[in-house]
């Protein structure tokens, strides 16, 4: 009987140690996953900010570095009683040296969703041309992670001239 009791105690102690080890292993995996996801989120946001910096500086070299080749834009322009929807290749982005475009995301409203090597960035924005407010809207970036990091695959955005706060 004493041997059985001792055996039960050993099994119980071993079981508790295994549960403790499994708990710490799971905790470590979760933390590593969170760190990787946090790193990806920072990289994704960095690429979005690089886009706006390139827009302001009219830096076509940065555009080609942060965008997937042959990417495109989808645009919806809100009008009072209608909407105009169209798309265009990103390479046809019309930069005019006489227009200084400043677009700023509303940082506190940015939403990022990720799954492995694909992500979306939902970013309400405000835009000025030559320091004069032009419009607001929402930018939606579809980002893809290749061997060289995150790049913009598609940008869809709205252009709203009313209701900007």
Architecture overview:
There is one protein chain. The protein is built from 2 helices and 7 strands. With 165 residues, it is an alpha+beta fold. The chain has one domain: Roll (Nuclear Transport Factor 2, Chain: A), CATH 3.10.450.50. Strands 1, 2, 3, 4, 5, 6 and 7 form a 7-stranded mixed beta sheet that branches. β5 (118-129) and β6 form a beta hairpin. The radius of gyration is 25 Å and the shape is elongated.
CATH architecture: Roll
Shape call: elongated
Query: Which class best fits the helix and strand makeup?
Result: alpha+beta
* Overall pLDDT level: 83
Based on DSSP secondary structure assignment, what is the total number of beta strands?
7
Span between termini: 79 Å
Residue runs with pLDDT of under 50 for 5 or more positions: 26-35
Tell me the name of the CATH class: Alpha Beta
What can be said about the biggest beta sheet? 7 strands, mixed
Beta percentage is 35-45%
**Helical content class:** 25-40%
Number of helices: 2
Q: What fold name goes in the CATH topology slot?
A: Nuclear Transport Factor 2, Chain: A
Radius of gyration of CA atoms, rounded to a whole number: 25 Å
- Could you state the order of secondary-structure elements as H and E? HHEEEEEEE
Q: What is the count of distinct domains? A: 1
């Amino acid at each position: 009987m004493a041997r059985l009791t001792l055996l039960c105690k050993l099994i119980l102690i071993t079981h508790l140690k295994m549960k403790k080890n499994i708990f710490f292993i799971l905790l470590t995996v979760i933390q590593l996953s969170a760190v990787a996801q946090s790193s990806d989120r920072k990289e994704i946001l960095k690429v979005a900010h690089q886009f706006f910096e390139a827009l302001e500086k009219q830096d076509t070299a940065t555009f080609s570095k942060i965008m997937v080749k042959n990417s495109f834009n989808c645009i919806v322009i809100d009008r009072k009683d209608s909407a105009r929807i169209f798309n265009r290749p990103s390479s046809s982005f019309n930069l005019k040296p006489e227009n200084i475009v400043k677009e700023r995301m509303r940082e506190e409203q940015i939403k990022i969703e990720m799954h492995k090597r694909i992500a979306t960035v939902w970013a309400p924005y405000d835009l000025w041309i030559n320091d004069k407010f032009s419009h607001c809207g929402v930018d939606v970036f579809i980002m893809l992670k290749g061997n060289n990091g995150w790049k913009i695959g598609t940008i869809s955005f709205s252009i709203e001239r009313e209701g900007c706060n």
